[in-house]
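User: Here's a structure from my thesis project, written as C-alpha cells. My advisor, Dr. K., wants to see whether a designed sequence matches the one we expressed. Can you design one independently, without my sequence as a hint?
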C-alpha cells in the first residue's frame, strides 16, 4: 500500500515535470491507499476459514479484530476512497470506479479462479491513466498503458502469489498458479516479467524514447531478474520466491516510472 501510494506520487511528479498540484496529488494518494486498505481488510474477512489454518498472523484470523468490525472498517474505507476519488472529477472517478469494482469482483469471485490475475492487470493498466487524467495531463501516448500495465499486472500477480503456493494449495483454490502447477508457474512468472520489459521498452521506443529515463531501470531490472532466475533454477525455495516477489515489485515500479518519464510529453 505504501509503495503504491508512493508510486502515484511519483507519477504526479513526472506528469507535471517535478511540480505537481499537491491538492490533487494528495487526494490521489489518499483514494488509492483507502481502496487498497479496504480491499485488504475485506479479503481477510472472506478468507478467514482458510487463513485460520495457514495464515494465522493476519488480523482477522488471529482474532485481533472481529469479522463484523473488519467489515465495517472495510465499508468505511471503501466509502472514503470513493468520496475522495469523486472530488477529482467525473472522468477520473469513472476510471477509479472500474478499479474499485475490479478489486471487489476479485475478492468475491475471481480470487480462486483461473482469471484471478485479470484485476491486477486491469488495475496496473488504469493507474497511469487515472493519475494523468486527474492532473489534466492526459495524452494519447498513455494508451500504451494498456499493454504495459496489463503485462505488469500479470508479472506482479504471479511473483506475489508464488511464495504462498503450498499454503494455498487446497481443492477450492484453482487460480492460475495452481492450475499450471509450480513447475510451470515459476517459468510463467519469468515469461510475464520478460514480456513486461519488452513491451515497456518497445512502446517507449515507438514514442520517441528518452533513453536517460528508461535505460538505467531496464539495465538494473534485467540484471537483477537474471540473478533471481539463476538462483531459482538451482533450487526453488519459499525464501527465494519471496525475494523474487519483492524484486518483481521493484522492477514493475521502477520500469513504469522510467517508461512514463520517457514518453510523457514535455511541458
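Assistant: Designed independently from the structure alone:
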Amino acid at each position: 500500500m505504501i509503495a503504491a501510494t508512493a508510486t502515484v506520487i511519483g507519477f504526479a511528479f513526472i506528469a507535471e515535470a517535478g511540480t505537481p498540484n499537491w491538492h490533487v496529488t494528495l487526494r490521489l494518494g489518499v483514494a488509492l491507499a483507502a481502496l487498497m486498505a479496504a480491499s485488504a481488510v475485506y479479503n481477510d474477512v472472506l478468507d478467514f476459514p482458510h487463513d485460520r489454518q495457514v495464515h494465522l498472523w493476519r488480523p482477522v484470523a488471529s482474532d485481533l479484530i472481529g469479522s463484523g468490525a473488519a467489515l465495517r472498517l472495510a465499508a468505511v474505507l471503501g466509502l472514503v476512497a470513493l468520496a475522495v476519488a469523486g472530488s477529482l472529477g467525473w472522468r477520473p472517478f469513472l476510471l477509479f470506479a472500474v478499479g474499485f469494482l475490479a478489486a471487489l469482483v476479485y475478492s468475491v469471485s475471481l480470487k480462486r479462479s483461473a482469471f484471478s490475475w485479470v484485476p491486477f492487470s486491469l488495475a496496473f493498466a488504469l493507474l497511469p491513466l487515472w493519475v494523468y487524467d486527474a492532473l489534466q495531463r492526459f495524452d494519447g501516448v498513455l494508451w500504451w498503458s494498456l499493454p504495459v500495465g496489463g503485462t505488469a499486472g500479470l508479472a506482479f500477480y504471479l511473483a506475489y502469489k508464488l511464495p504462498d503456493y503450498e499454503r494455498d494449495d487446497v481443492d477450492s483454490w484453482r487460480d492460475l498458479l495452481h492450475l499450471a502447477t509450480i513447475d510451470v508457474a515459476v517459468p510463467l512468472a519469468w515469461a510475464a516479467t520478460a514480456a513486461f520489459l519488452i513491451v515497456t521498452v518497445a512502446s517507449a521506443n515507438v514514442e520517441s524514447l528518452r533513453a536517460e529515463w528508461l535505460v538505467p531501470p531496464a539495465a538494473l531490472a534485467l540484471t537483477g531478474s537474471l540473478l533471481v532466475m539463476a538462483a531459482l533454477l538451482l533450487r526453488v525455495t519459499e525464501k527465494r520466491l519471496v525475494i523474487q516477489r519483492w524484486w518483481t515489485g521493484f522492477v514493475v515500479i521502477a520500469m513504469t516510472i522510467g517508461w512514463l518519464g520517457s514518453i510523457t510529453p514535455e511541458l
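When you compare it with your expressed construct, this may help: Residues 84 and 119 are 21 Å apart (CA to CA).
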